[in-house]
Design a protein that fits this description.
The structure is a homodimer.
Chain A: H1 2-21, H2 32-45, E1 59-62, H3 76-88, H4 102-105, H5 115-121, H6 126-139, H7 155-166, E2 170-178, H8 179-182, H9 186-190, E3 197-209, E4 212-223, H10 228-238, E5 244-247, H11 253-260, E6 267-272, H12 293-301, E7 304-307, H13 308-311
Parallel strand pairs in A: 1-2, 1-5, 2-3, 5-6, 6-7
Antiparallel strand pairs in A: 3-4
Helix pairs in contact in A: 3-5, 10-11
């Protein structure tokens, strides 16, 4: 047993050495955004620094849609919901009686009916639902890039997550999207385990089905983790105030406010979508991922704003460098 | 930085070696309960074992009241609530209009009015509430032992938590009691950080108070993490099925069922309070921590039942050995 631990630790030691031998954040240009991240991490991790933060308190929270992966032309979780609705609808004729779904039944999701979120979850067990998400993530492709949605994650943010973890941070996702649409794949894609992934959720229920315990979704919203709901989710699910928060839209404003209002050195960052060629460019007027009030708050509070076009060498892992 | 990591890892390596050089669970007698724990941990951690479980999936959940600390003559969180009610009542004359509190206002808590839980939380910020818990934990003493309540934790269970953690387990508390009565002290007392502590909770709200973001409690229950609610809490807060679950009462039954119904080797344990001399002896007829249905389930399913009197050399850390 001792030998086994020693071997594991040696491997870990070597990998840490290698990671630190290389320059951190290689896909980031050497601009103020990258320098601000590194200055913050060095300040809170350097023993004897006035800003030193013990490992246990190094909590970082990330939004998902538009912060860790793309969200255009519509939120990816909505795409899952639509695909799942279409797959289930033929077996659920009773859905036709629900008002507001007429267009959806004709395949028109230009306006997304929120009740679809509930219909697609409700009645499933959490394990059946997770399987449907895994199946979708393995096959569904983005209409413009033709890539799997889980490939459309931001290479610079993957490096940032890795850099924070190497520096003792515990990294969480706190997203307005549905918790159980993220948990089945975040560990593989971001290295963030399901128990560190929170979002909006429905109420659930424990029951015995054929003598076997299951948890099923109820048709009732439990928490919408958007805007002030993100701070509420952090309090409830994490119970420790983050020292760093990363978002991209007005829905992240309260999360960044909550994180930065704690005592000691704090860090807040917004990803600003400025690259119409490699990704999308949108902010104050967008219906998806609107960044307006939070951009003003960033300017007022000195938060770091990432200019995707100027600050990132690559956007996606599949791009050539 | 490399040198710093190397030093940290060396210390860790040495402490792991030391921990494993000593016999695990020193306060446990060499009885079937101890042997079952060790056999399980060795089976899931030994590389090449048919029961091997990767580190990421080694989740263990513990009840708190009666499992990690005592709960007689009444649940310790209730004692906090009563003390806090008494401290606040003089400043809250409006509480007198609430039906069912007549006896409480005369200092009689023989029957505990559930509304007290809500009154004591509601309106406070989460940080004010946490401070009131810390103050209470630092000063309130048990009427029979004269000890701080946080001293009345079970030495054998502290060793069990440590043993699991040394073997790569991530250890959670999932208690029927209130989350925010545990989080302020669990890290210090059990080594379990607040973000791995869940219980019953009220709804909360984000607001600006004098321009500063705060989270306050609303007078509405969000989740009661007791019985089936424990399985619901695990699904929602952890999102990964535990491979081991530890409880002491009927309120833990569904948690143990949920954990053991997963595939692969699983472990469930009940602490049976059998030691009237060193602690308390109670089970099927007790109003506090009743162990009746779960005891039958343990027998039917081959779960481990700890006989506190026979299996534990000491109960509390302050006892002489």
């Amino acid at each position: 047993m001792k030998k086994f631990f020693a071997a594991i630790l040696l491997v870990f030691l070597l990998s840490v050495s290698t990671a630190f031998a290389a320059e951190p954040l290689p896909s980031w240009n050497d601009t103020p955004a990258k320098r601000a991240i590194i200055a913050f991490v060095e300040a809170v991790t350097r023993e004897g620094s006035p800003d030193f933060v013990p490992v246990a308190e190094r909590i970082a929270v990330f939004d998902n849609d538009g912060t860790l992966w793309s969200e255009q032309p519509r939120y990816f979780p909505e795409v899952f919901m639509i695909d799942r609705f279409k797959a289930l609808a033929p077996q659920r004729p009773q859905w036709k009686a629900i008002p507001g779904l007429e267009a959806a039944f004709e395949g028109d999701f230009a306006t997304f009916p929120p009740v679809v979120n509930i219909l697609v979850h409700a009645g499933s067990t959490t394990e059946e639902f997770a399987q449907s998400v895994r199946d979708w993530a393995a096959t569904a492709r983005h209409p413009e890039t033709g890539r799997l949605y889980t490939e459309m994650v931001y290479q610079p943010m993957l490096e940032l997550i890795g850099y924070l973890r190497h520096n003792g941070f515990k990294v969480y996702i706190v997203s307005g999207s549905w918790t159980d649409i993220m948990r089945p794949w975040t560990e593989k894609v971001y290295g963030i385990p399901p128990e560190q992934v929170y979002g909006s959720s429905l109420k659930t229920k424990f029951a015995l089905r054929d003598g076997k315990p299951v948890i099923t979704y109820l048709p009732e919203v439990d928490l919408i983790a958007e805007g002030p709901g993100k701070a509420v989710a952090i309090g409830k699910y994490i119970g420790r105030r983050p020292i760093a928060a990363f978002g991209n839209s007005d829905g992240d404003l309260e999360m960044l406010e909550w994180a930065t209002a704690g005592s000691g050195l704090r860090f807040a960052l917004l990803v600003h979508h400025t690259d119409a060629w490699r990704e999308w460019a949108y902010d104050r007027k967008s219906t998806v991922g609107r960044l307006d009030k939070a951009l003003d708050a960033a300017q007022a509070n000195g938060w770091t704003v990432v200019d995707m076009k100027g600050d990132w060498k690559v956007i996606y892992p599949f791009e050539e460098r």
